[in-house]
């Protein structure tokens, strides 16, 4: 039953893969392609221990490979990390661990400092998505296609306010601007690559975090 449950979670999490012909989802396989690099099982084991330090609960997912170089290996499905985070699908363990650290440490500290309220929910645009960077055909594979990235769009506060990256980044309220810049800066200390509205036009409405090999990069 546990294996079946993990399989169902994986299929839901990977429903956004559109790498197959005519936009149809690629069918996953248990077998890695010849050029695929295997995840280090020792690193994964340590990551799972680190993830537990933040009180996170998760389901470890079976490795899957898809067409067009997309994959979800060494991945987990986060069930809880202290507060709800919407739209979380398959994420590589280290990306999930870094998200848990950022949520529990940096987000709440910045919210109390600048907005005088705790964050009770974070809204994301998702994690795994089999696509090129910024959705541009012919571009390099996005880290989303490796289940190695997450996009953060908004924060719901205990006092009822909702802070979005799109409207808040250049908000007339300096406290909102300072909060978003604080969580952005904090993410740069935890993730390899962080891109926000100041980075490029494609990120006008979210903060992109990933643990890819192009870092450190913070914009």
UniProtKB/TrEMBL annotation:
Residues 46-219 form the Extensin-like C-terminal domain. InterPro entries: Extensin-like_C. Residues 21-41 are annotated as: Disordered. The lineage of its organism: Bacteria, Pseudomonadati, Pseudomonadota, Alphaproteobacteria, Sphingomonadales. Pfam families: Extensin-like_C. This is Uncharacterized conserved protein. It comes from Edaphosphingomonas laterariae.
